[in-house]
Amino acid sequence: MSMKTSDFYYDLPEELIAQHPAEKRDESRLLHVDKKTGELEHRHFYDITDYLRPGDTLILNDTRVMPCRLYGVKEDTGAVVEFLLLTQHTQDTWECLCGPGKKAREGSRFSFGDGALKCEVTEVKDDGNRMVRFEFEGSFFAILDEIGQMPLPPYIKEKLEDRERYQTVYSRELGSAAAPTAGLHFTPELLEKIRDMGVNIGYVTLHVGLGTFRPVKVDDVTKHKMHSERYHLPKETADLINRTKENGGRIISVGTTSCRTLEAVAAKYNGEIKEDEDSTEIFIYPGFEFKCIDALITNFHLPESTLLMLVSAFLGYDKTMNAYHEAVKEKYRFFSFGDSMMIS
Q: Residues 207-218: what's their mean pLDDT?
């Protein structure tokens, strides 16, 4: 079936875009979709245990979001420019997104946080991103933690009072420019309850880039090029997945980032799951053959986005669009701070 980007459009009233997280993480709503029949059930996230079985394995992405939005003052003019740190290339060199870009030309110098951090733009890349060399004393990440801001998605207009609400409770590997939002619904107590049921929990790391919000600009879905993201699938997680499969349990991916990590490794090794560390540009859209995951927990994604295409690949296009129309009708909260969907 030939797919157009416009096939993945749905109408979303602006008031359904969640501007802040649920008061309690696991009290967000949960739409359960039966993968075979498409049948829908309206629940709360704390009911997720009703859809898990002893011997299943949940795979969580333990990346941690960096407070990687910085506001720099241009040394010669005093102009304020926003820097979003994307990728670290050396100890003091980062690839950044800068706006307004015309004020961040090659050779421009900036100061941040009353001089705690300084930088020079060393290169303007073809895609408009900047290579930036920072100057600092002590620990770069300690300074970032003090003066950086959370890079909330552009559709969230309200200020986030508690930065930890844009982190999962199990985040530990610093490196993301956006949160793996499917995991935001878990509490330590809920994870403990899940373990007590005999469900295994394994971790992968995929550092989420801002490309996750990049719109698809081509009509033909197959012509879209994905951004590259770094991942690590540790040996203990690979062993756990293989053991789960051998014993007839299910691999349940928490989020599209965990899914992309597992399926990238499976594609690389002809269906085998083994320890791996690499970058992936895997693009999952309808017609994709899943080799690892059996169920998926995910939030509700933007119209015409690659994430919605991934969900459609897993659940099927018609069932996905039906579930989304139902979620709009029932006034679920959408996107990063929104409600959740489980497909199993």
A: 83
